[in-house]
Specification:
By secondary structure, the chain is an alpha/beta fold. The protein has helices spanning 18-34, 48-57, 84-91, 102-116, 130-136, 150-154, 174-187, 201-213, 229-240, 276-289, 310-313; strands spanning 5-12, 38-41, 59-62, 74-76, 96-98, 120-124, 144-147, 164-168, 219-223, 245-249, 265-270, 291-298. It has three domains: 5-16 and 201-298, Cobalt-precorrin-4 Transmethylase, domain 1, CATH 3.40.1010; 18-101, 3-Layer(aba) Sandwich (Rossmann fold); 103-187, 3-Layer(aba) Sandwich (Cobalt-precorrin-4 Transmethylase, domain 1). It is flat. Bound molecules: iron/sulfur cluster. Iron/sulfur cluster binds next to α1, α4 and α8.
Amino acid sequence: MTLPALTLYLAAPRGFCAGVDRAIRIVEMALEKWGAPVYVRHEIVHNKFVVDGLRAKGAVFVEELDDCPVDRPVIFSAHGVPKAVPAEAARREMIAVDATCPLVTKVHNEAQRHFENGLQLVMIGHAGHPETVGTMGQLPQGEVLLVETVADVATLDVRDPARLAFITQTTLSVDDTADIAAALKARFPHILAPAHDDICYATTNRQAAVKRISPLIDALLVIGAPNSSNSRRLVEVGRAAGCAYSQLVQRATDIDWRALEGISAVGITAGASAPEVLVNEVIDAFRARFDTRVELVETAQETVEFKVPRVLREPV
Ligand code: SF4
């Protein structure tokens, strides 16, 4: 049987970023160092495949510190936690390892600095996302106001329009965030903006690669989890860049093959928490159904690496 011809445009960079890679290494090293079980507050990164793999090695995922016994190590996820959480772990004299991505910690530090200078903060982010909860939780209640859309800016009730700064979640859409930042600057001309964009290099690079492939393709598949902010933004970026059929899939079994009938070019990318093994699984699924030619579209090269915390590098 002759298979229909299809070109797969494979976006690069895609998949794991340095923060996710570090967070997974932290859990693995903690299991090696202290043995199982090691408790992890929240999914270490938003990917079921990764979480299930670590669970099989002895990690226990919980949502709150109260669910962790005091005599076992606890790890805080890559998204970051409100300040009260490590403080409470210290009060309970628990071994706590912080897997917060250093680029999220950078935003926490920025928020703290502005607070110490007497500024009120506006955070551009998604309500309820753990990173937003963690960043807002660095400062006392009321010191960080959240905006999710341009429309939210018009209704912001600030303490003093002349003493404001804004920060952002690291995994937002670069373009949407630029619009919200412009609305903030238009309404509050004295607002301080981050010196360097808070949206991280990995989010920015993955979105740029999707923008490059979108005009070439009939369909875009983003491999990632429904609760992964950066993966969902890639779907939106694909649609905004002209690829109407942009879908999030967790793995090959999620692909709606009927919707892909008659097409000849598909783009594939993966969110920052999706492992390459799932990308390969999707490529293999295409190879089984199409005469597939894979073309790499590389828009940047990434060399960022983060060290794990010192406590994991020291002997027990
Ligand atoms: S997506 Fe960005 S901020 Fe989030 S873990 Fe990766 S590098 Fe860090």
